[in-house]
């Protein structure tokens, strides 16, 4: 059998060079929240317009109220300046609340969108992708976008509105000083764009390095990873490897932090020096015989100028942040754009009552479209409702692959596979999941209680139903003997239980769902002979009235099957009962003799 783990590791597509299209796609994320964003824009505009009133009030204080001793006007102007501060504060809090709420909703949409996409990906994707890489995209990349998503829209509108309002106010005060103030603005724009490109490049490298570290941590610090590392004496080597990865990440973090710092520092120095330039320019204008500029106008203008450069530089910084975040959005869009091979039919065929007849008609299957050979080829099998089929064969013959096709973990490459005469591709996923239960050779248990793991199959199951399923799987007595019984934590991946106990828990979980079709893929492979016999008795009792397909190497577990199919190189080479196949003295008989030679518990009588 060509196993999916043998396929190459998944690699993302090259970045999309069409930046405008990517920006438009990002903006579409905010489309469902247009009303709230419009309210934010109105609050921002109101806040910006109110804030530029302060310099004009200040000019009147310095040029009129104080020189003329008009205390009433002075009190009124002072009250106006206080009111401006209060209104600006209230508007700021409201716009922050609404914009943060919108940003978090967009983050939620992205997280659930990626998770939903991954839930619908074929099994082959996960066999080619490191778990840490997936976790990094969902947690790290989306988390890294939080500042951009939650504050960028507000920052853009706020700063743009402030810049426009401030420039208009500056022109109203004195156009000559305004020209002097804006001379260096194009230089600032050029610097910020260059810094943004540099930070985008470093951010992309940093996120890839963080994903590599997350994958290494997930693999080496899991229970399996710790056991393997210690028993192989590789703990020190793993630590050194992690240190090297961490060192690379530290270098990238420093690079990301320092990218463009010197250039932005130049902008800061120019900003700090601009008031002196304005005072100097105003002095030259008056000394040269030009129109006099009042002290109040100069002070108000400097105040406006400082108010201009703050939002202008913030606007440039937002542009830098957006460019850096494009790398994160690109990584998320790579997952959102993954092609889904397994799709649910638009109009699924209903199955009111599943009888359980499974039929494979001229089925071919290959894991990769460009694979040299098929994993399964020309498979024709019929499993009548309520009967049992055992599938045997040497390693790599395609047994497990066949078990993947029935619950539609993969789609057939050619031919079709039907349940009660309906192609499984025409069934809703929930219908198929209710009809087909699988107990695989790789048992997975969540880090939760025994009861929670069992109820994963049937969330509304009663305690009595849990106990009945556990008894059927010959595991109730062991669970009842635990200090906390069914509330006992199983540990990560069930490591508090032995291999046989985990498989019996998995069997109980499937029994709880009571599916009409049962797939047992090496379900007793981790059991000792005594436990295997007990579980086999439970399986035989459960098999009554339901269709059972058993994938097994231990031939002693399949001798009573209604049919035994022998696979070799993906083809059904023999089909019959245990006695018929022994009498034929072909592949099956050879397997029996081989297992007898190697000491496997084979029953041939």
From TrEMBL:
> Cross-referenced InterPro entries, in alphabetical order?
AAA+_ATPase, ABC1_TM_dom, ABC1_TM_sf, ABC_transporter-like_ATP-bd, ABC_transporter-like_CS, P-loop_NTPase, Type_1_exporter
Q: How does it sit in the membrane?
A: Multi-pass membrane protein
Query: What residues does the ABC transmembrane type-1 domain cover?
Result: 39-324
Q: Which Pfam families does the UniProt record give?
A: ABC_membrane (PF00664), ABC_tran (PF00005)
Gene3D superfamilies documented for this protein: ABC transporter type 1, transmembrane domain (1.20.1560.10), P-loop containing nucleotide triphosphate hydrolases (3.40.50.300)
**Gene Ontology MF terms in the entry:** ATP binding
Q: Nucleotide-binding: present as a keyword of the record?
A: yes
Where is this protein found? Cell membrane
Which positions, given as ranges, span the membrane? 37-59, 71-98, 163-191, 262-281
| Nucleotide-binding keyword on record | yes
Its principal location? membrane
Instruction: State the PROSITE patterns in the record.
Output: ABC_TM1F, ABC_TRANSPORTER_1, ABC_TRANSPORTER_2
Q: Per UniProt, which keywords does this protein have?
A: ATP-binding, Membrane, Nucleotide-binding, Transmembrane, Transmembrane helix
Where do the ABC transporter domain residues begin and end?
358-594
Q: Which PANTHER family match?
A: ATP-BINDING CASSETTE SUB-FAMILY B MEMBER 10, MITOCHONDRIAL, ATP-DEPENDENT PERMEASE MDL1, MITOCHONDRIAL
Q: What is this protein called?
A: ABC transporter ATP-binding protein
- Organism of this sequence: Streptomyces polyrhachis
Traced from the root, the source organism's taxonomic lineage reads:
Bacteria, Bacillati, Actinomycetota, Actinomycetes, Kitasatosporales
